[in-house]
Amino acid sequence: AAAPESRPFEADVAKLLHLMVHSVYSDRDVFLRELVSNAADACEKLRFEAIETPSLLGDDPKPRIVITADKEAGRLVVEDNGVGMSRDEMAEALGTIARSGTRAFMDRLETAQSKDGSKEGAQLIGQFGVGFYSVFMVADRVEVASRRAGSAEAALWASDGKGAFTITELDPAAAPARGTRVTLHLMEDARTYAERWMLERIVKEQSGHVPVPISLAEAGAEPEQIADGAALWARPKAEISKEEYADFYRGVAGQFDEPALVTHYRAEGRHEYVALAFTPSTPPFDLFDPDRKGRMKLYVRRVFITDDAELLPRWLRFVRGLVDSSDLPLNVSREMIQQSPVLAAIRKGLTNRVLGDLEKLAENEPETFAKVWEAFGPVIKEGIYEDYERQAQLLTLARFRSTASSDGFRTLKDYVADLKENQTAIYYLAGGNPDQLRSSPHLEGFAARGVEVLLLTDPVDSFWVTTAQGFEGKPFKSASQGAADLGAISAPDAADKPATETSPAVADLIAFAKTALGDAVSDVRASDRLTSSAVCLVAPDYGLDRQLEKILAASGQ
Ligand code: ADP
Ligand code: MG
Question: 219: which DSSP letter?
């Protein structure tokens, strides 16, 4: 064989490697994700090439990834039977920075270096994941033996990650029959990566759904399959049973209940992704955490990336599941995630789908939907004031207790359909609980006229009612606020109808009350609001609603 040919890394690779070796970055686990995803990519590439050239598959048509750990030797091997690399391909792929993601990483690094370079750089690795070169976070020597599918020759790439690599011809007998074998000689402080439990944990966590089965072997033992290469979400909906969905949901959501609703679809066209999202039937424990974070997971081609990508608006944070994108690079960074138009499109599409499915559920299975609303209505209602574009849609979806509902829910459509003659507003009363509200004197005048009043008992209600534009042209109006203007609506029992003109006796009483109460009130007036109670306190027309005032006072504003 020819003498080993030593070549320097491209300048940027050398810089990157230096950083990798000296990084204090704690999440070194990502190196395995990168290796497994490269192996899976190689298998997918072969599958693609074999469409044209079936002979490439030879007598070994099934893709596989085998991870072998040798604890004694401190060695870890990741091998695939994918497309492999020729000698030239290897020099190109593992000696330069060809990838746009890594390029972006380097650019960020340049700007970061003016500050505390090494620290910032370490953080950046975590955000980007930097592909193959991340092996040098855990290994001080790495060998890559590879044979291109259909080729008789094999080559060996080797490096200690310090500026140069060698490429030699490799005796084909010592190379994989097809594909690539990456051997890591682990650093002293990275030897846990040769432990079975560790590898199994990382693979299940990060790569459990790559489209190629993964086996794990300890030195000298038979490989054991630890991931089956079948991602549930990639299968057609019609082939997935209710139990399979429920099992998967419990795994992905860490919940123990049944999903109330499964949203599963494949988007094609401009953006390709699969989404599998579950609406739980009981609230997750962190539903009202102040950070209001969602837990939807982002995958890129079946490799787990992050559960921090905010794939849904906060008011849908109870939805659990994942999105698997075909368009994003594997090493998408946090910034890229926040700014990516791809993700913006996914977010919008997914929100539409989940809302659409909730609407269908409300229509077709009202009892199930009532449970969902009971559990998550208070969260969904945050969207009414946060998401102006969807306000009308969310108001249509919303369910309410009211003076006209016994134990069931009412919709605003129901409310508007039952408006009294001359009624121009949707009345509500906000407060602690429905029973308390039902006995409020503020409701007397409304009850006398048969005017329905929504009973709003969630803290969030006081916020959206003040900003919502109304529903079908009818503004929201507090029954405890301002002039109730019920005069135009006739009460069925004429005797109960308060006089529209204020009698001299009442005028005297009002004058007396104003003097006696002084600055404690801003006005005293006769009202249509009451029938049997003599007086009640109301908030002014344009001031804060009393319930909102209480909430703001409680939160120290
Ligand atoms: P990326 O996978 O994003 O392209 P990497 O740094 O992970 O970037 O890998 C660089 C390149 O090395 C890959 O694009 C591929 O061409 C090659 N490569 C790495 N691992 C393998 C493998 N197991 N089989 C075939 N090619 C590989
Ligand atoms: Mg890669």
Answer: T
Question: 295, 268 in Cβ contact below 8 A?
Answer: no
Q: Binding residue per annotation — 180?
A: yes
Q: What residue's CA is closest to ligand 1, atom 16?
A: 93
Q: Is 180 in the pocket of ligand 1 (CB under 6 A)?
A: yes
| Beta-carbon-side half-sphere exposure of residue 105 (alpha carbons within 13 Å) | 31
29: Cβ below 6 Å to ligand 1? Answer: no
pLDDT, mean of each 10-residue run, the chain (557 residues): 77 80 69 90 86 92 96 97 95 77 65 54 55 90 97 96 92 95 97 96 85 91 90 92 88 84 95 96 80 87 83 95 89 76 94 97 96 95 93 96 88 95 92 86 89 93 89 92 68 53 68 73 69 64 56 51
| Ligand 2 geometric centre to CA of 416 (Å) | 57
User: Does the CB atom of residue 129 touch ligand 1 within 6 A?
Assistant: no
User: CA Rg, the chain, in Å?
Assistant: 33
Residue with tokens 């030879």: 58
Q: Tell me the two tokens of residue 34.
A: 């990168």
Q: Determine contact, residues 476/412, Cβ cutoff 8 Å.
A: no
Residue 250 alpha carbon to ligand 2 centre in Å: 30
- Check if 34 has its Cβ closer than 6 Å to any atom of ligand 1: yes
- Residue 163 has a CB neighbour count (10 Å cut-off) of 14
User: Which token pair is 258?
Assistant: 């049944």
For the Cβ of 325 lying below 6 angstroms from any atom of ligand 1, the answer is no
Would you state the structure tokens that stand for residue 314, as one six-digit string?
């906060």
**Ligand 1 and 134: CB distance under 6 A:** no
Report whether residue 45 contacts ligand 1, using a CB cutoff of 6 Å. Answer: no
Give the position of tokens 């209480």: 550
The amino acid occupying position 272 is E
Q: What length is written for the chain?
A: 557
Q: Which ligand 1 atom lies nearest to the CA of residue 45? A: 25
Distance 37 CA to ligand 2 centre (A): 6
Q: 111: burial class by Cβ within 10 Å (0-12, 13-18, 19+)?
A: exposed
CA distance 517 to 437: 26
Q: At what angle do helices 341-364 and 366-380 cross, to 10 degrees?
A: 140
Give the C-alpha separation, 194 to 172, whole Å: 27
59 assigned binding-site residue? no
Q: What's the complex ipTM? A: 0.99
Give, using CA atoms, the residue closest to atom 7 of ligand 1: 131
Residue 489 in contact with residue 421, Cβ under 8 Å? yes
What is the residue whose two structure tokens read 């299968």?
235
